[in-house]
């Protein structure tokens, strides 16, 4: 367990389930996704990249041109389990993108410098 995530009980519960070989409880996974998204938004403020983790949440982050209407030019989208793994450093950004688990479009969407997300 990474000490970076010791303040989020939901992240711990979801990762513990994975470590046991179990599927995380849906509520724990939802809360973990939301906690990790909120922390990314807090530590990487901005509105140039939209990070979407359906069905649990979406945020805008990363400094740069602000998006106001229509489809954002910089979008990251993935499933909740992939986000949990990438945000906690258990799966690399590059491996997730290369395998198609993360869809990232736009020049600002490489979140590697901001991962893993550190909760504090």
First-last Cα distance: 15 Å
Helix content: 25-40%
- What is the general shape? globular
Tell me the radius of gyration: 14 Å
Strand order of the largest sheet: 2-1-3-4
Beta strands, count: 4
Structural class: alpha+beta
**Separate helix tally:** 4
Query: What are the segments in which pLDDT stays under 50 over at least 5 consecutive residues?
Result: 1-6
Give the topology string: H per helix, E per strand. HHEEEHHE
Note the main sheet. Answer: 4 strands, mixed
Strand content: 15-25%
Rounded mean pLDDT is 90
How would you describe the overall organization of this protein?
The protein is of the alpha+beta class. The N terminus is likely disordered. Helix content is 36%, strand content 15%. It starts with 8 loop residues before the first helix and ends in a 15-residue tail after the last strand.
TL;DR of this structure?
The chain is 36% helix and 15% strand. With 120 residues, the protein is α+β, with helices and mostly antiparallel strands. The two termini are 15 Å apart.
């Amino acid at each position: 367990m990474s000490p970076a995530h010791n303040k989020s009980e939901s992240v711990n519960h979801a990762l513990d389930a994975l470590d046991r070989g179990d599927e995380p409880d849906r509520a724990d996974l939802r809360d973990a996704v939301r906690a990790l998204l909120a922390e990314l938004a807090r530590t990487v403020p901005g509105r140039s990249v939209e990070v979407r983790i359906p069905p649990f949440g979406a945020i805008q982050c990363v400094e740069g041109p602000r998006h106001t209407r229509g489809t954002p030019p910089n979008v990251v989208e993935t499933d909740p389990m992939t986000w949990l793994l990438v945000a906690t450093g258990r799966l690399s950004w590059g491996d997730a993108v290369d395998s198609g688990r993360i869809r990232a479009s736009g020049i600002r969407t490489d979140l590697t410098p901001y991962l893993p997300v550190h909760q504090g």
